[in-house]
Amino acid sequence: MNPVVLGIDIGGTRIATGLVTREGQVVSSLSASSRSVDGDAVATLKRVIQHMIGRASAHNCSVAGIGVGAPGMVDFKAGKLRADALKLQELADIPLRDLLEQEYGLPVVLDNDVNAMAMGEMLFGKAQGVNDFLYLALGTGVGGAIVTSGQLLRGTSGFAGEIGHATVQLDGRPCTCGSRGCLKAYAAGPHIVEQAQELQEEGRSSNPFPLQSAADVLLSARRGDPLAQQVVDRVAHALGAALGNLVNIFNPEMIVLGGSVAWGLEFCLDEVKRWAARYALSGAFQTVRIELSAFDKDTAFLGAAALFISDVGMNRTM
Ligand SMILES: [Zn+2]
Known about the structure:
By secondary structure, the protein is α/β, with parallel strands linked by helices. The chain has helices at 41-58, 96-104, 113-124, 184-187, 189-201, 214-222, 226-250, 260-264, 269-279, 282-285, 301-311; strands spanning 2-10, 14-20, 26-33, 61-70, 74-75, 80-81, 108-112, 133-138, 142-148, 151-152, 254-258, 289-292. Strands 3-2-1-4-7 form a five-stranded mixed β-sheet, with helices on both faces.
């Protein structure tokens, strides 16, 4: 039997899961709805796990352990989603890791999806062979992970890497965290739409169609719409400032940008880098590479599998 890790990325609407070898080969994968039919999200998750364990046997593989990435605040030490896990209330505040370990008799590692993606980049993606790097996930929110000397920095109570709430504008736009001027308030998807709609309401657009999603705004900017370009200029400026700060604080070898907003910004990545260079110390900026992630939401289970491999390892378990 060939050893594999079951990687599971739990999203707000989808569970992406796959059987992954130590080398990052995907033996089998599945995407399922994370919405529970009967209001029992744990049962839904267990059904997916049971199905994938069956698939492993069919492929002559044995599951060595389970890595789980979940959105929002995860209490890594306790192995559960915090009570303020807004997207997945049904899974919040229950001892999910211990529960799954008991159910399947397998070691389980549970962390937030951004930390998982960082491990995915380190083992199988852009940051292979890189020991000091940062991962930023730009989507509905802005998440971050810090890897120093090959280890995730979790901080004293697990909040390390909350780069989305770095201040990029003193007393700037209001943020969902209650503060003002956070990176998230400029660069997260819903805030990108908000900024475009504000400019439209001010009558600065000849475009009669409202820009309803971040993808709309980013695509319109790429096509030359002046209002969308104005918003994207602001996003690039805010993101560049945050990256400049991160370069100065961590002196990383690489910064990997992932998530739907990051891919949508690909056409202006050079502008983001120009702003980052403006705010970073030149000596530190010279040695940093800023790259787009190798993975998307459908392959995020690779990060969850990498999380398990980097935390538990595969040799000891087999
Ligand atoms: Zn904030």
